Batch of 3 targets.
Target 1
Amino acid sequence: MTRHVRRGVTLVIGALLTMLGIALLVLPGPGLLLVLAGLLVLAREFPMVERYVEPVQNAAMRGAEESVSSPWRLAGSILTVFALIGAGVVWGLVDALPFSGWSTGSGLILSGFILVGLLVWSFRRVKAAQAAQAAQAARTR
């Protein structure tokens, strides 16, 4: 691929990920993580975007860790998964709802499954960090 085509493809993919992430900041889904993904894609070809990556990455990681930081938050996140999947099924089956149909329903269901993956990843990340801190504390005693 020529350099201009590669830059154009990168721009389109990065912009789409970023715009989808911005939309998902107010809709159910992993908005901040998609904004981060879009910025990372854009930063590969456009170095001026790199300055926005670190603040968004810090906020995304903090949000992911907070979602599993306590049993109550984890329970709330799991209930959100069930609510998203349930709402997706209802939106797919009930024609009387606004924007009803499987296009909306499948988007909600997909958001639920993405949230499951993010919760598992966040939970493992937090547990690994806690184990590393405990090991460090044990070594310093």
Target 2
Amino acid sequence: MPHDLVADTSMIAAFLLREPQGEKFDSVLLQVIAGTMRLRVPALFSFEMLNVLLMAERQKRITPAQQNQLITEWETIPINEHPLLDSLARRRILTHADRYNLTAYDATYLELAEGLNASFLSLNTELLKLKGTLDWIL
């Protein structure tokens, strides 16, 4: 049975935008393609990713044509988006956000990883500070 991994927008965006830190995602993607890992994200991921691509284009880091190409590449990655959420999950998100001083957005990734008993991959500095506390953060 494939292992579940939750990756946040910072990781997948770095991969798509060819940033050096995004190379960490290469091995994940190979495992996803091989079927030994399932990549999971919360529903808010798509909105965050669109915003990253929008800001990259506005800041002239990428052209509109590159933006379109990156959307096409993103759509080829086998990502399982999880819909949001029941009442209990909402409360757990707030608990994580409060306990670890995170945004609700970042806490949503934690809640999904914890709920799926999955590993979690991020480049977000605030989330990486939790590596010693939450052993499923890679």
Target 3
Amino acid sequence: MNRLGALVACSLSLAGCGEKLIPNTDVEDTEDNQKVIDYCEQYRIALEARDVARLLAMTTDDYYEDGGSPSGHDDYDRAGLEQRLRSRFQRVEAVRYDIRYRRVVYFPDRVEVYYSYYGRFQVAGQTAGESLWFSEVGDNRLVLARVPDGYKILSGL
């Protein structure tokens, strides 16, 4: 009985041990991970503010988005990103964008951040004073380049 009690006590104490996570994420709480998450939160805040200039300033000069089609008709570079942002934000009145960070993966030349998002968008309707809300839920990967003062976004917007 003493052995069983000691085994149960040991098992319970070990169950409480594990990696400490950054609050509201599934990401281990390390200094490097915290810096990456902090940078990604700047992106989220800029997106909610619909701040095209800030979003573009966060991207690399060689930003490129592969839309996934075989023909490449939906691919775009940094200039295309600017056009897409300006076009989409033209009628958007409000944005709420929640991110749940799932994983951060480090490579010598980049960092990949995997996350789930829940975006809600208020868009001007067809008639004056009319607003429509829509939402989008999904998973995404933000690819960050390492730069001397932190990070810049290579793809994933």
